[in-house]
Amino acid sequence: MDQFIFRQRYKNILFAFMAIGIICMAWTWFSDDALHTRFWSNFFHNTMYFTGIAFAALLLMTMGIVTYGMWFVAFKRIWEAYSMFLITGIILMLVIIGGVWFHYHHIYHWTDAQDVAKDVVLNGKSGFLNPWWYTIGTIVTLGAWAYFAVKLRSLSRQQDNNGGIDDVTEYNQMKRLSAIFLPVGGFLSSVMIWQWIMSVDAHWYSTLFAWYATASWVVACFAFTALMIIFLKGQKFMDFVTVEHMHDVGKFVFAMTIFWAYLWFAQFMLIWYGNNGEETIYFNRQMQEYPVMFWGNVIINFVLPFLVLLSNYTKRKVGPMVFICLLVFFGHWWDFFLMIKPGMLHTAHEELASMGDHGAHGAEHVSHFVEGFTIPGLLELGTMLGFFGLFVYVTFVQLGKLSLRPKNDPLLPESLHHHVQ
């Protein structure tokens, strides 16, 4: 079938996922320390992960349009639907922005003006790490991304209703928009990844970090695309998407896994070799205090996917692809967990310690807390399930609005006859 039907049983399952997420978040809030560190770290972690996947889908789609890519056209509706989650991402990030101004969360150490005044490093970065830059940058960046996503989606809708496959009016407009988006999106993503994620550890910096985080989003997007295609085909939708398309998606999961591992190693090796204390403390803390997360990250996100996807056979079989793509999708959620949790825990420890006797007791509790920080606990997994349900719900709503087959895309015939040599 070319038209996706958002059946009631899908809605019931996704509502159940979202309910689990809400329950886990509520449980986390009432069982948390005085600063609700675990709650806010879970909220921020999942907001970043799923909003980033939406951005990665938009990035991949615009790259394909600009380069006259035809292989992805058969399933481009999936990436269009993913990108529309950016609107939801704006709402979620407004909650984070409110905490930056009103201090109801302590995600960032640099939001405390007194600490910044006493800290040479934080004071030196205060021209960039401040509430105004964070607020304006977040709204402008996510707003710009959402604008391009909505505009491309609108042109895709118009294309379905235009004069036919030989009418390239909307396609040319998409190319122009995509050509504008790529440098804008690339620049803004680098800047805001520094603010959103890297500044959780504000004393540390890496010139490779924005590439690294973006690569993680892109791998997760490809893995989730493969899972979505398999699901839709299993439900008798998108029969025109063939094993040839799946093979190419699998190749990109494999290729981007290697690229992610290259960035992981390059970042780690250069900082280790440089032996600059301001930089090495980041990896030293991860290796000493979070060894399961640190080495597990490499095994889940590189070693296992590399070994499984090395063979062409596994890229064309549903079973191996489902297994490895689920692993990769979870693995890069794990990756963002490691990017965010240690820095937030350290900030909470210092903040609680500054509160006196009561705060010191809280800090001791937080610094020795294992579940939820040293490794993900059930509440983290439940919260992730809730955000996953929300992301898929938004995706399914968007998939139901247009034909799954982009009827008048000029590259559709080539995509439908796509063959991997």
Question: What's the SSE blueprint?
Answer:
Blueprint: H1 8-30, H2 37-66, H3 76-83, H4 85-102, H5 113-118, H6 120-124, H7 131-160, H8 169-196, H9 209-234, H10 243-274, H11 277-289, H12 291-309, H13 312-315, H14 318-353, H15 357-367, H16 378-399, H17 412-416
Helix pairs in contact: 1-2, 1-16, 2-3, 2-4, 2-8, 2-9, 2-14, 2-16, 3-16, 4-7, 7-8, 8-9, 9-10, 9-14, 10-12, 11-12, 12-14, 14-15
Can you tag this structure with a few keywords?
about 425 residues, globular, mainly alpha, 17 helices, about 0% strand
Describe the fold and architecture:
- This protein is mainly alpha-helical and 421 residues long.
- α1 crosses α2 (37-66), α11 (277-289) crosses α12 (291-309) and α14 (318-353) packs antiparallel against α15.
- It has helices spanning 8-30, 37-66, 76-83, 85-102, 113-118, 120-124, 131-160, 169-196, 209-234, 243-274, 277-289, 291-309, 312-315, 318-353, 357-367, 378-399, 412-416.
- Helices cover 75% and strands 0% of the residues.
- The longest helix is centred in the last third of the chain and has 36 residues, at 318-353.
